[in-house]
Amino acid sequence: MKLWRWIVGLILIAAIAAFAWHWVADDPGYVLIHLRGTNVQMTVVTAVVLLLLAWAAVSVLVALIRWPFGAMTRRHRRLSRQRLADGLVSLIEGRHGEAERDLNRAARYPSVRGPALLAAAEAAERHGESARALETLDQAAQEAPRAARVMRARLLRRTGRPNEAAALLAPEANSGGLTPAGWVEFAEASLEAGEPRNALRALDPLQKSGELGSRAYAEIESRVVAAYVRSAPDGASLATLWSQLPKGQRRLPAAVDAYAQQAARFGQTMAAMDEIETALRREWSPSLVATYGSMGAEDLEQRLRRAESWIDTHPNDAMLLTAVARMCVRVRLWGKAKPYLERALAIEPSAAAWEALGDVYVGEDHPELAQRCYRNALALARGEAIEALPDELRSRRIDTRVTAVEERDQHGVPRLSP
Predict the structure, then answer these.
(1) Where are the alpha helices (DSSP H) in 94-234?
(2) What is the pLDDT of residues 350-362, one digit of tens each?
(3) How far apart (Å, rounded) are the C-alpha atoms in residues 186 and 152?
(4) Which residues pair with 39 in a beta bridge?
């Protein structure tokens, strides 16, 4: 494509030159220069050519005069860029002191001063020099004010001052002028400052920008919405808050989990059960199952029956088995809870399952076995080795081998095995 443009351009230039030559040949013009008794006569074409030659000669002379100074400038520019590159590499490699030194040297050249100072501030903060990092950001604010403001908010938040970080970004947040990184910092600072309502304002611009990517946006959206739901002070406020959330946010597992816990806390167990059951019909979530089993004693037997029906379609879900067993423990069904817990521990050992098994042995009046289970729960939480139960107590009533999960399509119809 570029070749054809060059060809067409050359043809146009040749055509214009041909017509101009005929036009000048008919009347080349006349120029007379009289200076102190000396007359110089020439055509207009000759005068134009002489002027162009004089301009070229002056340009060459100026370039020769400036060349030594330009060489120094070029060397300074090359060194600054090299120091910027070296400083960034050192920053990534974790050599923060060396990175800060190289980046501060690179900042002496104007064209890279802004990014060099921003990176130097990051290096100073990672090196534990928060005060020096803030001083460097003062200088960076003269070159890149918006980026320096976002980075200052990040440093304030990392040093335990989220309120100051949120206040720093609030004016731009109110006007909608924050960059994507600024919205992220505003959301994080607002969450840490206990202001989830302000953090919620960042979700819409972040979603529209698309800069975070689907996974990162989903993670921060879940945290923000869940924190916003947990901020409800009473049942009435919770119901109003929940109804005003967009439908997509009410379907987030983390949001449903937070709502269910708050609703159960305010005595609205039925509403919590309905939301969790609806969410589980839409998308299976082990964390919601755990919350479902840990709610209050209201309608416990109904919840137990519903949870047991889920085992048919999710037989290998250790959290479901543990949740069902814990509900059995609460209604003192020790013999029913034990097989569920044995199976859960065979599939995926957890501290909650060992603790619930300890409760079972307490109910069956086996304090020594209960203490061993509680020790195992504590050891597993610490990442330490656990102590196995006596062989005669393991796998007596239930086969703890993991069975195959029944696969179903989107309509709930079981899939045939190949």
Answers:
(1) 96-106, 113-126, 130-140, 145-158, 162-175, 180-192, 196-200, 203-209, 214-230
(2) 999 999 999 999 9
(3) 12
(4) 34
The two tokens of residue 184 are 């992220």
> In this structure, are residues 290 and 319 in contact, taking their beta carbons and an 8 Å threshold?
yes
- List the end-to-end C-alpha distance of the chain, in Å, as a whole number: 54
> What is the Cα–Cα distance from 90 to 123, expressed in whole angstroms?
9
CA distance 339 to 24: 107
Distance between CA 160 and CA 192 in Å, rounded?
A: 9
Three-state DSSP at 408 gives strand
Among candidate residues 218, 162, 221, 220, the one with its CA nearest the CA of residue 193: 162
Query: pLDDT tens, 247-267?
Result: 999 999 999 999 999 998 888
Calculated CA dihedral for residues 221, 222, 225, 228, nearest 10 degrees: -120
158-to-145, 186, 201, 228, 403 alpha-carbon distances in Å: 20, 13, 21, 22, 47
- The CA distance from 62 to 77, in Å, is 21
User: Mean pLDDT in the chain?
Assistant: 84
pLDDT value, residue 335: 87
The token pair that represents 213 in the structure block: 């990517």
Measured from the Cβ of residue 389, the count of other Cβ atoms closer than 10 Å reads 17
CA-based nearest residue to 224, from 243, 206, 210: 206
Tokens of 243: 């109804």
Q: What is the DSSP letter of 110?
A: G
User: Can you tell me which residue has the tokens 């739901």?
Assistant: 229
What sign does the dihedral 266-268-269-272 (CA atoms) show?
Answer: negative
Dihedral sign for Cα atoms in the order 16, 22, 24, 25? positive
Q: CA–CA separation, 328 vs 34, rounded Å?
A: 117
Nearest to 140 by CA among 154, 119, 123: 119
Q: What is the pLDDT of residue 23?
A: 67
Q: Give 100's contacts (C-beta < 8 A, 6+ positions apart).
A: 87, 120, 123, 124, 127, 129
d(CA 265, CA 271): 11
Residue-wise DSSP of 116-133 = HHHHHHHHHHHTT-HHHH
The SS3 of residue 59 is helix
Both tokens of 294, joined, read 């840990």
Q: How many other CB atoms are there within 10 angstroms of residue 219's CB atom?
A: 13
- Distance between CA atoms of 62 and 183, rounded to whole angstroms? 51
DSSP assigned state of 179: -
